[in-house]
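[job 0412] stage=fold_complex status=start
inputs:
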Amino acid sequence: MSSAIENGFQEKIDQDIRIEPRDWMPEAYRKTLIRQISQHAHSEIVGMLPEANWITRAPTLKRKATLIAKVQDEAGHGLYLYSSAETLGITRGEMIDQLHQGKAKYSSIFNYPTLTWADMGAIGWLVDGAAIMNQVPLCRASYGPYARAMVRICKEESFHQRQGFEILLVLSKGNEAQRRMCQDAIDRWWWPSVMMFGPNDDASPHTAQSMRWKIKRFTNDELRQRFVDVCAGQVKLLGMHLPDPDLVWNEARQHYDFGPIDWNEFREVINGNGPCNKERLAARVQAHADGAWVREAALAHAQKNSIREKAA
Amino acid sequence: MSDHSIIDYILHLGDNALVLGHRNSEWTGHGPILEQDIALSNIALDLIGQARYYYQYASDRINAAEHTSHPFPGQETFTEDVLAYHRDAWDFRNCLLVEQSNGHWGKTVLRQFFFSAWQFELYGALRHSRDSRLAAIAAKSLKEVTYHLRWSGEWVIRLGDGTEESHTRMEEALNDLWKYTGELFVPADYEKPLALAGVAVDLATIRAAWVAKTGEVLRAAGLEKKEGEWMQKGGKQGKHTEALGYLLAEMQFLQRAYPGCEW
Amino acid sequence: MDTQHTINDIQNTLQDKTSWPLWEVFIRSKQGLDHKHVGSLHAADAAMAIENARDVYTRRMEGVSIWVVESRHIHASNPDEADSLYDPANDKVYRHPTFYDLPDELKHM
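[job 0412] stage=fold_complex status=done
writing structure:
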């Protein structure tokens, strides 16, 4: 039985009136949002690592610069998201601790290794492509700060995917080794990208409530299907193929049918057994630990200064 | 004055920017806090941008040079990427300061501070160069360098005058880096005639300002520079520390492993 | 001012010596008329907050004005009091532009 205030809250959502930080909200809504936004933020930050791997090895100055810019954008996106989560009553420090202690998740895709330069292309095309598909609808999420962060992110995301596809396009027109590099990266990143959309709808118990609260606008399977359809078309421009022998256009459905997803792998990677889980988390924990003396010093200096100012 | 001199000078300016930009970019994803990760990547991007301008200019010069004075015989057409990815360490003309390893955050910001304070004075003078293209690059870069100087100077003070631990680490950093600052004011052979011709900056004219600025910040940071320390040099003439070889091996790998490819 | 007010009492009382305070950032673009709230960030002092804001929220655009305020210094109205604070009482209908019947030819007003 819901109260008048809960009904009022749901009505606002139904009318697409934004919920803002000081508005009343059900505790479950607040908790779900904190988890969703912070995990999205963690994904951006952890997501910097597989790409940062290749900054020092980028093969041209232009690629070097654009890769740094892309990874830096991801840091910025993480920052916008942490910032919006903080309006819900959690601190950056608490969220970071949750990540480092393994209590919070981040997108499973970033637990895969980046083995060649072509991976930079595949990540931009597929991983950013999947992220964009998820993010654009969230620009109309019910929680104001989250929606506004998503608008900012989507504006900046546009060059990421184009950059990735262009990297692959150039490789696809290169020599034999480059063409092989291109197909190899697609072979390794395709299925993990498809898994990014999460479990099938019938295995996602929270989807219905999230849709009612408009913090999720389309279901996992809807977004996944859209993604497969778009990529199946785009891969032809590369003269490459997606590693799915069951991928075929279904005239009746007006969509591509695709092969079975290995949910075992998905579960294992989510639970910490992916190729790079330990390394990714260790890198973040290390950076944070190594930076403690810096953060402490900056605070100490600021405090000294404010004492000096008061005394002056 | 041979065409070699001006090309060496342009490469010196570009190599400084590329090597330091590359070093700074190693921090991406590993900074002490998200906001500073972004700040240092911005600086890396600025420096790589400067390097590209210099390399593009150097390429134009080299490509236009008479065959007899071609400094890199055997190579057909030069581009920014040929210069960045196909020279060995002995052909790089950066100062030793910029190739030093990042160490901890304090060493990185101190290295940046010494370098930016120098670039600030250098570009302030270089924008009056008789070479209009160098003058233009310097004028364009001065604004961002002004910001780099401010950012790094503030960090040196924060850490020097922060906690006991941060102060100790800054003293270590100063011990590591001070010996590389002398080279900034020792003209290489190719610089001397260029300075006389008003193309390159006469380093003697910018030294006092650098000493004053660094003195002021180090004092505020509670750090004392060492007088009379023996200075390391050679980078400008291609004699580097062991660090540069490893840096280039990593940076140049793909171009060397797959020569002649588009990326 | 599009204020995205933040309540962070937990942050305010945090004794953690490595945790930097939260700052709200307001930017006025070159052609803009007023400062707009764009988000928040963590910084140890005001100079750092402004530099971070420049790096993150302005993408180093020139001619912008940046304001930063520590979040704990922002005081916000209570949305529950909206009715009394923003009072569209019927006897003040003359404050609404639609009250005035103007000729169609008069544009931009």
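[job 0412] summary: The longest strand of chain C covers residues 22-28.
[job 0412] exit 0
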